[in-house]
Amino acid sequence: MAGPYYTPTSKPTAASYHSSLPLRKSNLYSLVAITFLCSAFYFTGLWQSSSGGSGITTSNVHPSLPCFPSKNTSASPHISSSSRTIQKLDFTTHHSADDDGGAVTAPDDAVKIYPPCEIKYSEYTPCEDPERSLKFNRNRMIYRERHCPEKNELLKCRIPAPYGYKNPFKWPVSRDLAWYANVPHKELTVEKAVQNWIRYEGDKFRFPGGGTMFPNGADAYIDDIGKLINLKDGSIRTAIDTGCGVASWGAYLLSRNIIAMSFAPRDTHEAQVQFALERGVPALIGVIASKRLPYPSRAFDMAHCSRCLIPWGEYDGTYLIEVDRVLRPGGFWILSGPPIHWRRYWKGWARTMKDLNAEQNKIEQVAKRLCWKKFVEKDDIAIWQKPYNHMKCTEFRRRTKNPPMCHAQDPDKAWYTKIETCLTPLPEVSSDKEVAGGQLEKWPKRLHTIPPRISRGTVNGVTEEVFHRDSQLWKRRVSYYKSVNNQLGQPRRYRNILDMNAFLGSFAANLVNDPVWVMNVVPVEAKVNTLGVIYERGLIGTYQSWCEAMSTYPRTYDLIHADLVFTLYENRCEMEDIMLELDRILRPEGSVIIRDDVDILIRVKRIADGLNWDSQIVDHEDGPLEREKLLFVVKSYWTAPVTQGSKTT
């Protein structure tokens, strides 16, 4: 057959075989010599790599060679043809900015360059855009819900940080301090001055921990709650704060090993959620309106509203019905502010006693119809408790059918799902002493105990064996991550972390002893809905489709982890749009770890180069023969130029 390949057409004769023996021996000696020399050069190079290189911040892990050539040496590993040395990524922060608007170096011809956006997009939240929201119904705050741009409206540029942006203070200092340049808004310092929310001090904001109903500070307020319910024994771990302000309640719960999901709309209280995130406190932009909150049923041990201005008794109790859905059996709902203790505050609230009394009566009636019991009311705080099961509630509901029990619905479905004015039934029990859905262990034991949703077989395809195997897998993987990026093992280098495809939350579970928090996302496109398992482990998270923007501000996260995200969204939406969203929500000098098939990572890396990210493809923890690889990324530091109308003190 013609071509570059040799194909024998007959077997060799014996004579030809014997005549070739001297040559074969010579080739064998040459092969041994070459093998010895190659091994010697290899180990010499390995010794030089491990002994030199001061200032290198990655450990001695061998990255994969680039799968395509690139002229953009600032955005890809540089391989020298003579020495074959690899430029390693610098994961440390430097606080320096370029005044070139984030311009990139000369690119490879195959790399599409993404220019900086205008400074007006510095705080752009695509699905909660204040201008777009005005097109929607203002009734019941529907216009404050998610309303994402159409495909032809998507920005194809990089969101700039404001001029003067600095890396946030490290936790726990960040709980009390934030740089003015990072969130240049003084409105709340005036509007909430007497309530001690926030104070402006030179080039910084200070958060005294105050709130509308706790001017003496969130710490003292939480102590008051702790006198009414037990916050110390580990039975309460996950909480939700509706209308959170700057999230001081959630910030001070963290020292008690309670993690709160704080949310508030993007409204006239300018940048309240942005302040929470800058402080290093978990938060999302959100509102209770016509759609379910993006959390599974039975997620939270405690729910809280401190003068959150949500009309709990209106619309047939719709909003309390939604709180009931996400509240765990036996969980507590805490209310302070109007109408609680109205006899003392009615004049200051500029409302009539009759009006406030009627409001409280409506709330009491809705709670009763939900089978909640009034646990305690003392001074400014009222607490209700959800029943541990619906056995007695079912008997009560034979007489009171408003709201009716929900039928034929998935209680965990919560992505653009309409709120129904019906009571979400709890899993069935065999006695009135049993906890519906299963009893949880106390924190921290519940983190590693088999979650009830798994032990009861209600998560399709996820068994106890799968849970244990996943836990061990991510223990090894997180250890490997820390060996590549040694800053991940340094206390307080990272604070706000996002896991884009969390599955059972084992990545976050292996970081629980570090001073970080992880937002665990279960994509709505995932085959199995596991977010309920994540909450049963005592972690927090949300639903999200990565074909859309996340409900958060730019520069939210210090570290983003993406496990097989781009495989999941192959042929679903554009890869560049997902990468642009990562760029939006990642802080300058933040890091990304992307795990995926090598062919996909090559395409991802091209986009990373176009975003002016420093990136490097690294072998799988099991070695170079695995098709799955890792892309480690550091976002470059740049800000909008001062000439673009940046705010100053």
Automatic annotation (TrEMBL):
<dbReference type="InterPro" id="IPR029063">
    <property type="entry name" value="SAM-dependent_MTases_sf"/>
</dbReference>
<keyword id="KW-0808">Transferase</keyword>
<dbReference type="InterPro" id="IPR004159">
    <property type="entry name" value="Put_SAM_MeTrfase"/>
</dbReference>
<comment type="similarity">
    <text>Belongs to the methyltransferase superfamily.</text>
</comment>
<dbReference type="Pfam" id="PF03141">
    <property type="entry name" value="Methyltransf_29"/>
</dbReference>
<keyword id="KW-0325">Glycoprotein</keyword>
<keyword id="KW-0472">Membrane</keyword>
<feature type="transmembrane region" description="Helical">
    <location>
        <begin position="28"/>
        <end position="47"/>
    </location>
</feature>
<keyword id="KW-0489">Methyltransferase</keyword>
<keyword id="KW-0812">Transmembrane</keyword>
<keyword id="KW-0735">Signal-anchor</keyword>
<protein>
    <recommendedName>
        <fullName>Methyltransferase</fullName>
        <ecNumber>2.1.1.-</ecNumber>
    </recommendedName>
</protein>
<keyword id="KW-1133">Transmembrane helix</keyword>
